Task: inverse folding
């Protein structure tokens, strides 16, 4: 499997290279250690808004059309993303064109103009993005779940920010945030795929131009909960979209991968317990999914489903019953092997695509004290026993960590009665 190398540029910025000589494509991913957890109440949403502004023009590429046209001319796929703990910018191209892509990405991140007219236009775009997410309860319920978990803290705020903040940000706000949060202290460059030594040299020359920034770390997260929590967003829709989960562990915790494996067994595939029980046996949902989220300072396991309004209680009881069962009975050897093989297969499939490979190593660099290779991950998963899974399940499936978020027309009093192990 792929080997990586870390070189430090003259400004101390890490350049992570993952060569695949036979790959016809190459990906550049620049990832920044900043996101909504690094914001205050007053500037919540600025990380995401700033991400948009890098695509609006530079001196060399004066308009958004100039930038997108030049990237399209490479036959590339490209985008950016903002999360709670990092922001990323990536381009995937045919390997011979990676040098040109590097110059464009470097220009965007070093020389964006942040023109006031473009900021004004983009406000409307992002407000509509907020509306789009809020009108899609299947997506928005996870934001509601994290608000239920973490409350009125940076960890609980929506990454996209509030409409009031979006309408209020000034050019000076963007420049100040950019100067503080973007620089060699907080940025990582990842090259993955069929690039050449000369391409790597170009990347080093471009990104060595970033100054050493001040960079403000995020506030420490303090989790406090001693009984089940419920949060409902009332909305007139035909379903109730729910996310029912428990607090777990952060990245790097000794039991991190056990939680990941538990989520696969519970609802990570079409043969998983909750997919079979909620959908195939009871016909209560079309979409059923369990997942585990791991941040640098917290984590959780949750199950998400869209169910009929009148059947929310029944669905919640089924999910709780499966949570209870996995915390009381050892997982059988066949089911455990199937889950491990599924997880291993997904990782191996990811390693076929240069953008997925770049993302893997970017997350390692941002979130872990020590880089974890796919091989390391697979070896760790293989060693997990049914007894270890049971021990972890007993710890996390408890009332003091139980949280339920819903979007739809729900009755709080009835749900509170059943929200317990």
Result:
């Amino acid at each position: 499997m792929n080997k990586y190398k870390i070189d430090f540029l003259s400004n101390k910025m890490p350049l992570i290279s993952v060569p695949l000589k036979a790959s016809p494509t190459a990906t550049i991913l620049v990832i920044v250690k900043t996101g909504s957890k690094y914001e205050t109440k007053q500037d919540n949403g600025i990380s995401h808004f700033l991400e948009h502004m890098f695509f609006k023009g530079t001196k060399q590429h004066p308009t958004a059309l100039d930038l997108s046209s030049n990237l399209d001319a490479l036959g590339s796929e490209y985008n950016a993303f903002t999360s709670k703990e990092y922001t990323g910018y990536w381009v995937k191209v045919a390997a011979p064109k990676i040098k040109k892509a590097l110059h464009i990405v470097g220009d965007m991140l070093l020389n964006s103009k942040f023109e006031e007219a473009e900021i004004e236009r983009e406000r409307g775009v992002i407000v509509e993005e907020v509306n789009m997410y809020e009108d899609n309860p299947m997506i928005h319920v996870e934001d509601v779940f994290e608000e239920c978990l973490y409350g009125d803290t940076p960890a609980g705020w929506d990454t996209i920010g509030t409409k009031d903040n979006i309408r209020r940000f000034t050019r000076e706000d963007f420049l100040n945030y950019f100067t503080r949060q973007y620089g060699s202290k907080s940025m990582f460059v990842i090259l993955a795929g069929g690039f050449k030594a000369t391409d790597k040299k170009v990347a080093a020359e471009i990104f060595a131009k970033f100054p050493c920034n001040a960079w403000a770390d995020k506030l420490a997260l303090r989790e406090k909960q001693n009984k089940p929590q419920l949060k409902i967003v009332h909305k007139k829709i035909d379903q109730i979209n729910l996310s029912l989960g428990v607090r777990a562990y952060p990245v790097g915790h000794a039991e991190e991968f056990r939680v990941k494996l538990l989520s696969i067994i519970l609802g990570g595939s079409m043969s998983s317990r909750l997919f079979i029980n909620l959908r195939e046996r009871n016909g209560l949902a079309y979409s059923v999914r369990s997942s585990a989220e791991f941040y640098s300072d917290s984590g959780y396991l949750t199950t998400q489903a869209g169910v009929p309004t009148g059947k929310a209680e029944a669905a919640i009881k089924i999910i709780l019953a499966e949570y209870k069962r996995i915390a009381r009975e050892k997982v059988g050897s066949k089911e455990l092997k199937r889950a491990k093989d599924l997880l291993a297969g997904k990782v191996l499939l990811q390693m076929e695509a240069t953008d997925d490979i770049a993302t893997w190593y970017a997350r390692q660099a941002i979130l872990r004290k020590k880089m974890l290779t796919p091989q390391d991950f697979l070896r760790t998963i293989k060693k997990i026993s049914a007894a270890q899974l049971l021990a972890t399940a007993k710890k996390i499936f408890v009332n003091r960590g139980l949280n339920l978020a819903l979007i739809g027309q729900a009755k709080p009093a009835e749900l509170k009665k059943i929200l317990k192990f």
In short: The mean pLDDT is 97. Residues 1 and 375 are 7 Å apart (CA to CA). The chain has two domains: 5-207, 229-418. The chain is about 45% helix and 20% strand.
